[in-house]
Amino acid sequence: MAAAIRKHWAVAISLQPKQYFNHLYCRHFLNNGPDTVEELLDRHVVKKKKSFDDSEDEILTRQRLTSTRREVLALYRDIIRATRYFMWVDSHGVLWRDVLRENARKEFEEARFEKDPEVITRLLIGGHDAVQAALDKLVEKQKQQIAKEKAERDRR
Q: Where is the Complex 1 LYR protein domain (predicted)?
């Protein structure tokens, strides 16, 4: 007991008055808590224990999900980029760009919770093919338009 009192007074003497009172209040909380940072983390952070039951299939499935997610986001970005070129209006006066983006969003939302990897792969391939086909048709129409304008200029 005497050693504890001496230690307490040694700390009190070494600190300025304001620090001493702060030290007293903090000391109470520190004594009730963990002794080390590791203990603190062990108490408050839930750790996932590694088990040897994790099969390679589960690991591959997790990797496939993250790569599939990246592919889906890449496809969506490609669609948004491709729709920039569709600047003419439809019969209702709405830009085709907006119509295409709205339809793409609706299709992505419908397939949002799909879990079957084969269906997801089929949708991704179909989406990439549709974007490529639309861009190819756009380029072909653009070439035809340029040729038509060139022919009209040559006639004059």
A: 70-130
Domain encompassing residue 139: 59-155
Shared domain for 32 and 69, answered yes or no, is: no
**Count of domains in the chain?**
2
Helices (runs of H) and strands (runs of E) counted in the chain: 6, 0
CA terminus-to-terminus distance, the chain: 112
Find, among 94, 86, 68, 70, the residue nearest to 131 by Cα. Answer: 86
Residue 149 belongs to some domain of the structure: yes
Q: How confident is the model over 82-119, as pLDDT tens digits? A: 999 988 898 999 999 999 999 999 999 999 999 888 89
Burial of 75 (0-12, 13-18, 19+ CB in 10 A): buried
- 3-state SS of 119-139? HHHHHHHHHHHHHHHHHHHHH
Does pTM surpass 0.85? no
